[in-house]
Prior knowledge:
The chain is an alpha/beta fold. The chain has eight helices and ten strands. The protein has one domain (5-229): Acetylglutamate kinase-like (Carbamate kinase, 3-Layer(aba) Sandwich), CATH 3.40.1160. 37% of the residues lie in helices and 18% in strands. It is globular.
Amino acid sequence: MKYQTVLIKFTGEAFSQKGAPIDFKRVKEIVEEIKLLKRAKVKAAVVCGGGNSLRGREVAKAKQRATDYQGMRATLENAQALEKLLKQASVPVQLYTSHIIKSKYPVFNEKRVKQDLALAKVLIFAGGTGHPFFTTDTAAVLRSLEIGAQVFIKATKVAGIYSADPFQNRRARFFKNISYQNFINRRLKVIDPMAVCLAWENHLPIRVVKWEQGNIVKATQGKDIGSLIK
Length: 230
């Protein structure tokens, strides 16, 4: 493996299919991918999106974004589903939430998180940063930096970074490699630009891949799949 410590952001769509908020068959596919990383002695952490249940921007249309925490709570539903199936597969796991979510799970604590990572536990982070206006993309980059990840992998529904939505524009240009600055200047949208700025400042590479089994392992091996922001 090229990378020994990775953080993967699974978008909400990775947890759902055919209209169901959470499809446990899909969650099991994520578990199988994580198990392969574990066998390769890779330290892995996961940030779950919540778009399959609720998107913060959609809620913002109806109420003030500054007081919206529903999107943060939506991420916990996916995180709990993933934790449940990891435990069923006998994979050591610890779920952490942001400070805003009151639950049975511990709030993110950098010292404890690093201890769990050293014990080879899979870490799951729910609730974003715990602050409105910050997406789960930004939370994923932040957590990547806090745990010392060597790469941030975003697993999404498209094959990588395009100049426009490839589902709506067949002529959209595909970027195999792109600089942080070029990504920001072009106002590309597959990742929140604030997350890219944070990664840029801290020299954290971002790999964007289509979520399907095998791609996370390939990205961790350093194979040239999807798109790379560097």
